[in-house]
Amino acid sequence: KRKGFIFDLDGVIVDTAKYHFLAWQKLANSIGVEFTHEQNEQLKGVSRVKSLEKILSWGNITLDNEEFTGLMAKKNEDYLLHIEKMDASEILPDVPRVLELLEKQKQGIALGSASKNAEVILQKVHLIQKFSAIIDGNGVTKGKPDPEVFLNAAKALSIAPENCIVFEDATAGIKAANAANMISIGIGDASVLHEADYVFKDFTEISSDFIQELIKK
Ligand code: G6P
Ligand code: MG
């Protein structure tokens, strides 16, 4: 049976959280706000606008629209400088193995990411041709935990939501997948991602047999 496999990008295919951290930290410090790794964790899966809103609230700062837009642009400029240096060596372990397995079995493969930089990153790591549909931060009006991004991906693959499987590293993404009536697979810490149908530390723990079971279901 043809199923739809929808991948989040940041934290699932590549570890860009470290670059988001550097860019947000620089920005936060520039306006006198402290920024820790714990705070960065809370921004996983969260859109750029929502992330800046959170940082400002942590620092008790209010800005006018122009200042807000300026900081958003600055953060992304900085982030893109890190992305610029990315290559295929930054693909997380066994992601290519799983993608190739799905490709061989003629399964639908889509990207469902909150990032507006998703295409650039997929190009940098040479994975863009593996995805027959890319739904990113430019293609949604409501961010995760809203299911919109995954429902749009299912639609683009022409596969019913209940026949889709989502790989996610963020709680907001697992909630979105569950709300979309899809099978949710958490990649990361099981205690954090306890709402997922399945959790694996990373793709090295996902066997071909497990994938076959999902396809047969
Ligand atoms: C992903 C990341 C978030 C990031 C968001 C928007 O969900 O996990 O940390 O804020 O994408 O990314 P962008 O590249 O558009 O700033
Ligand atoms: Mg993610």
Automatic annotation (TrEMBL):
InterPro entries referenced in this protein's UniProt entry, alphabetically: B-phosphoglucomutase_hydrolase, Beta-PGM, HAD-like_sf, HAD-like_SPP, HAD-SF_hydro_IA, HAD_sf, PGP-like_dom2
Entry's family note: Belongs to the HAD-like hydrolase superfamily. CbbY/CbbZ/Gph/YieH family.
Entry-linked NCBIfam families: bPGM (TIGR01990), HAD-SF-IA-v3 (TIGR01509), PGMB-YQAB-SF (TIGR02009)
UniProt protein name: Beta-phosphoglucomutase
Regions annotated as coiled coil: none
Source species, domain of life: Bacteria
Gene3D superfamilies the record matches: HAD superfamily/HAD-like, Putative phosphatase, domain 2
Database matches in CDD domains: HAD_BPGM
